[in-house]
Design a protein that fits this description.
The protein has 10 helices and 5 strands. By secondary structure, the protein is of the alpha+beta class.
Length: 209
């Protein structure tokens, strides 16, 4: 399964903002972006390079891919799916990405970051509607119930999640029983639930060129 294995803090510096790829480290002074906000390859005495319109669209598309941990082929497939749905293509794209199981696990506070959530899902730690699912790209739908696999209570990921969910602010389309760590999908995500500063219109323009 292909995935990015390079230094993720370098990606945050490239975009000049936190993409929250390192979990709790992103919220501490140890975050490299707090100490070094210059992009990779920056030279103090060089003339700053102005991005073209194409470059701005490409950078926005790359940012969305990196936030959700999706590679190009799969991202383009999500865009094609979004273009066939009623409504705005850009918003539909972000809603599809939000419905990924690894993103939902992260949003619920079951994992520190999306990469960790992806790993937990791949290792089969979660069940959807009582059935074990190990596909991070699985798209949840309203009414789905997400729970941990039996026998996880004594393991570190579960114990860590017990403490983390107390501080997580859930989006409006998810509900969580903090005692049993069982979640339910209440509806479709909205644009306001996403929260990231992604300009989805630039992504639409990139693929429409």
């Amino acid at each position: 399964m292909a995935r990015y294995t390079g230094p993720v803090c370098r990606l945050c510096r490239r975009h000049g903002e936190k993409l929250f790829l390192k979990g709790e480290k992103c919220y501490t002074p140890k975050c490299p972006l707090e100490r070094r906000r210059t992009p990779p390859g920056y030279r103090p005495h060089s003339r700053p390079r102005k991005l073209s319109e194409y470059g701005l669209r490409l950078l926005e598309k790359q940012k969305a891919k990196r936030i959700y941990g999706v590679l190009e082929r799969q991202f383009r497939r999500y865009f094609e799916m979004a273009s066939k749905l009623p409504g705005l293509t850009g918003e539909n794209l972000l809603k599809l990405l939000e419905r990924r199981l690894d993103n939902v696990v992260y949003r619920l506070g079951f994992a520190e970051s999306r990469p960790q959530a992806r790993q937990l899902v791949c290792h089969g730690h979660f069940k959807v509607n009582g059935r074990r699912v190990n596909i991070p790209s699985y798209l949840v739908k309203p009414g789905d119930v997400i729970s941990w696999k039996e026998g996880e209570e004594d393991r570190f990921p579960y114990q860590s999640a017990v403490q983390r969910v107390k501080e997580v602010k859930l989006p409006s389309w998810l509900s969580l029983d903090q005692e049993k760590l069982v979640a339910k999908v209440l509806g479709e995500p909205t644009r306001e639930d996403i929260g990231y500063s992604i300009n989805e219109q630039l992504i639409v323009e990139y693929y429409a060129r």
